[in-house]
Amino acid sequence: MSLHEALDSIGELERPRIIQLRPNLFACCFQIMKLLPARFMLDRAEDRGEISPGGVICETTSGTFGLALAKLGAIRGYQVKLVSDPAVDPYLAARLKSLGAEVEIVSKPSGAHGFQGARLTRLHEIIAANSSAYWPQQYDNPDNPLSYSVVAERLAEIVGQIDSLVGSVGSGGSMSGTAKFLRDVFPDLQVSAVDTPCSILFGQPDGTRTLRGLGNSIMPKNLDHSQFDDVHWVTAFEALASMRKLNRQYGLFMGPTSGASMLVAEWVARRSPEKIVVAMLADEGHRYYQTAYNDDWLAPLGDLSVSPPSDPIFVSSPVEPVGQWSRYAWGRREPGHYLPQQRIAS
Amino acid sequence: MFGIGSAIGHHGEIIQGVFERDRRSLVRGLVSFPCSALKSKATFHPTEGSEVTVSPAWKTKARDAVKTFLARRGVPTAGGSLCIESNISVGFGLGSSTADVIASIRAVARYHGVCLAPADIARMAVEAEQACDSTMFDGRAVLFAQREGHVIESLAGELPAIDIVSVNVSPDMPVDTLAYPPARYSTTEIEQFRSLRGFLRAAIRSASPSLLGRVATASAIINQRHLPQKYFVEVKAIAEKNQAVGIQVAHSGTVIGLMFDPAKPTERKQIKTAITDLNSLGFSPRLYRH
Fold first, then answer.
1. pTM for this one?
2. DSSP summary character for residue B118
3. Any CB–CB contact under 8 A between A149 and chain B?
4. CB-based contacts of B155: which residues, under 8 Å, 6+ apart?
């Protein structure tokens, strides 16, 4: 097998498995979803001559995007330097180390943008110090959403007609990207964003979020708000209860954002049995076995013996504080559309 | 003794763009939309000497394709007279040139008792012209590299049956369809074609006119950013109003096809009103049944 063919085989890891859970509900399951945009961004950067073997890749991330970069860096011969915060879990830290990535922890938050701002500052310092450094910029790099053509292609072949797409939003890449490709063929596709309270993406006030892996304190350019028909805010406990139910009911061992996504997707599928619904499930549960899958760890968040709600509360504005699963009809509108109109003096 | 060959034209394409051939190598490709009402027929009579003549005399590509065939085969009598009849209008993206070339190759091959596979015909056709279409595959839908003359992907089935209401948006101004520089696609468009390829496979596997129509419409919309059809918006609106399953275009020509599903009970009526609507805009549409 030539080196090129061997590198190709790694491409299988980025592809989702599409599993039918109900007559009108499909789960699009990724092992590590971020491998797809990471690989695509690096391919395009290589095509443009922005990076070559031996080069340095820098990024700020405490999640799976860093893992994806570390994996690709190890295979393709790049040095990967990640700036992270103390929230990086031991499982992820061990995996990053095993792939030869360097991880720098920034432990002090800075000003309005908390840890994310501090990490960015440190990242810029590293970039300034490394002349050949490449920064993928997953939040703003348009190659991120464009990478999801592979997902649309796969969904086309396995599912065919799709009426509704549901998935969590962090950088905006996976949902904005997949939605746009599907809408080339199905312009009436209904797209539901899954977010969490205290994430600014769809108008909630910024704050510390218990549910990680989705939501954001910084508005990414890759979030195309005009793609979304509605937005759901799901709390950490609701997401984790749903994640565990996904495991028990279907044998799908996935992560917390998948739980959030599935909670909403099952509701959409129940409400509209004639519509075909696809849920994007972004990562597997291995990383969370000591936390979200551990009863002792989960106990302070809520009572597992109490069923989480089966329907969201409908809210009339995104700025209302949400303490439980809530839904707002975003209607493909621009950010801030719900704010009182400013009259311009003539 | 003589040889006869025939070939059909097409009504533009279901899709035309760039596609991944293997990892990270892109190639221009298309799926022609065959139209059996459009035909070229060629007759080849051998003659003394080594000259090949063609009638009408301006069909030089067909003549050259025959000359190449004869030279490669090393046949004893290399002379002949080629006579081509065709009902395919020239210069609107209907594949008249390729149909002439293929019919001629088939005629001379038939005369010499040679059996040619579609792939061989494709190679010869692309040599004779810079680019050809995929009509030589006789019913099998293929994603075809039109400038290289080979199959990118066999789509494992036939195109579903579709009736076309054909509109020529520029009937008084034929074009040289090969004179346009090949379109340069953006990264976004390249990825759109990747996604559309998945839907194309699904449409053919499930024999779905409606899904095929959606793929064709998406390809036509992308093409508007490259070689825009006049009156595209107006014709698309009529298609939607009359519940066509989609529209397809000649990507480097001037015909637009409103696609209808023959299996739908309301189809006859919808085609009738679509034709009326097009007439009232000043077009002279034609109906091509599958």
1. 0.94
2. H
3. yes
4. B31, B140, B141, B142, B143, B200, B201, B204
